[in-house]
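seq:
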Amino acid sequence: MASAKNVLDEGLKLPAVERAGVARELIASLDGPAEEDVDEAWLAEAERRQIDAADDPSAFEDWTDVRARIAERLRAARP
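struct:
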């Protein structure tokens, strides 16, 4: 049986795309089985949000402004 260190060492030699795939699979393995109606619940939530956005588009911010604010917070958080 391979040790975690050996698996990690070998995994770090993979190209970035493959490492990302392995990481995704490992993280997904921690979640356990999906709940039965989770896909339907996410779809209903997305549809609800779409309706809210269509009803009052002024309640949302422009992506350019949001991105700039996030970038500023990240710059401020750097040591």
